[in-house]
Amino acid sequence: MKAGLEIHQQLATGKLFCACPAELSEDVAVSFGRRLRAAEGEDRAVDAAASLQAARGLLYRYEVVPSSCLVEMDDEPPHPLNADALETALLVALLLEARPVDEVEVMRKIVVDGSTTSGFQRTALVATGGHIDVRGRTHRIETVCLEEDAARRIGESPDGVTYRLDRLGISLIEIATAPDITSGVEAREVAEEIGALLRATGRVRRGIGTIREDVNVSTEGGRRTEIKGVQELRKIQEYVEREVGRQRVLLSLRDELLRRGASVPSGSQREMTDLFREVRSGPLSEVRRSGAVVLVLPLLGFAGLLKSPPGTEERLGRELAAQARAVGLGGILHSDELPGHGVSEAVVRKLRQALGVGDADAFVLVVGPSREPAEAAVERVAARARAALEGVPEETRDPLPDGSTRYSRPLPGRDRMYPETDVPPIPVSGERLDMLRRDLPEHPSARRERIIRQYTLPLEVVRQLEGLEDVEEFEALVQRGHAPGAVARLLTQDAPAAMAQTPEARPFSLDILDMVLAAAESGKFAKEGIPAVLGALAAGATSVEAAIGRAGLSSGPVEDLDAVVDRIVRANAKLVHERGEAALSPLMGDVMREVRGRRDGKEVADSLRRSIARLRAETATPPP
């Protein structure tokens, strides 16, 4: 297999073609609606993806926030391109050792899924031909682009989709790699490295939704599939691996279909609504209740191949159903799952007889509110079934939370591009690039080596800090006088665990983390109590002192440690006699239950060793 990435990162430079605030808002001033149509690209052809989106005929509703302007509503031409955003894109290009273009030309990319009010997204090529090194391998960077972010999707209904304009137009940088990636693990690592490089500029937005990845995957014998809009970096590996598995299932199905001589005859679908008028349950009950139409498509040689093969959840039937959903229907029924869903064995026999198909053949049932949408769905299902004879079709798929994907639309191509006539070309001078080169930020790979050397941290800990976007916080806390190891543990283990217990809590500020570490270092509580204190802060404690109290950790001295240890050791004298020094481990748990968070673990262990030795000496049998 091979894969490539397209990383989309919001820049902290405002919107790309207007001066509106680049902040999300829950306040809605007014709203309006539009219908969008597909236009021809520069080559006078209509893009397949745009054509499908326009054919859905949806109404797009736009919520206007108080800060929105006429540019966002597409009622005013774009303002000049944001100079800070362009400078940031050039800076990133230089960090990637890419070659900036001589002149930035803004293009229009046709997008009619409603995510823009105009029916297109403005995008500009900034640089080509860079590279990034990850774990000893060089990955080529094909392009660095600058573009507008889409509107924020709020909800949908059967006839349309609602968007909010607060996100529309935020400056985005897009970094596209070459298809050099050879595994899901490598895809995640390359995405992490590019993310670290972007954050190194100090000019990108942080937080959920500010960075998204498109993952392009193909297997040997297959074709490129784009998984669009992955937001969880840690799940990239799973999406890649599951897509590879899906494509391999499709390729094995292709081989079996070709062996059988399978086919999908043109114009073979038939309306068989009357046969289902008495069905009282399942999807086909719509015929009786609302007069729905049923079309049946025979698939010669497909019997048994529409359900999941053993050992996988992937199935061709799901791929066919996605095509019916793409035109607004609920899905399909197919012969591999019948009888069932309210359809009896007798009805299945009548269907086969009417279609003239045998046991080696399959068929698909499409139920539509009228003949027109049912025919549109059958045409798409038939086309997808024919594509199964070739293996893996090129397409765009949406990521799902469980790591799987679903069909979204055909893969867009160059037919959706044409020049933007409202924004003049912007020259990129050598002097401008020289000025940026003199002030490049520290490269993530160089920073990683410096931190390992300067603070004596393991590489994996540094990578954890990078993955959590906490490198800057780590260095800031160390500069305030805290031990590097303690700070690293706080940021990579203790703080994330506390936030996981209270997901709605706000992230800890640098000052709060500083005060927690200072309190532990000054003896107000032991370092083992840091997770409990952070947990109390996340749960609503108003100060570190209040959190110490809520966590049950005394801010004053605990009972004399040796006295506590002696009491517990003597209460377990039999265990000490039987196990000797090996009694340390179980007794450690007993002591820590009483002093956890107020005494250091090493201090407890040392006290236990002394107490065990004293007890054994007192009870030792004297020599004869």
Helix percentage: 25-40%
Briefly note the structural class of the backbone: alpha+beta
The stretches of 5 or more residues where confidence is low (pLDDT under 50) are: none
Mean pLDDT metric: 92
Q: First CA to last CA: what distance?
A: 78 Å
- DSSP E strands, number: 21
Radius of gyration, in angstroms, nearest whole number: 32 Å
Number of helices: 20
Instruction: Using the alpha-carbon principal axes, give the shape.
Output: globular
Domain module count: 4
For the largest beta-sheet, the strand count, sense and barrel status come to: 11 strands, mixed
Strand content of the residues, in percent? 15-25%
Key descriptive features of the protein:
624 residues, Gyrase A, domain 2, eleven-stranded mixed β-sheet, alpha+beta, 4 domains, single chain
Task: Give the topology.
Elements lengths: L1 E14 L14 E5 L13 H8 L3 E6 L18 H13 L3 E2 L2 E2 L1 E5 L9 E15 L2 E12 L3 E6 L2 E5 L5 E8 L6 H17 L10 E8 L6 E6 L5 H25 L9 E2 L13 H6 L2 E7 L16 H11 L6 E2 L10 H11 L6 E7 L2 H18 L6 E5 L5 E6 L6 E3 L6 E2 L2 H8 L6 H12 L3 H9 L3 H9 L4 H18 L8 H12 L8 H9 L5 H7 L10 H11 L1 H7 L4 H12 L5 H19 L5
Parallel strand pairs: 3-10, 13-18
Antiparallel strand pairs: 1-11, 1-12, 2-3, 4-7, 5-21, 6-7, 6-20, 7-8, 8-11, 9-10, 12-13, 14-15, 15-17, 16-17, 18-19
Helix pairs in contact: 3-4, 6-8, 12-13, 13-15, 15-16, 17-19, 17-20, 19-20
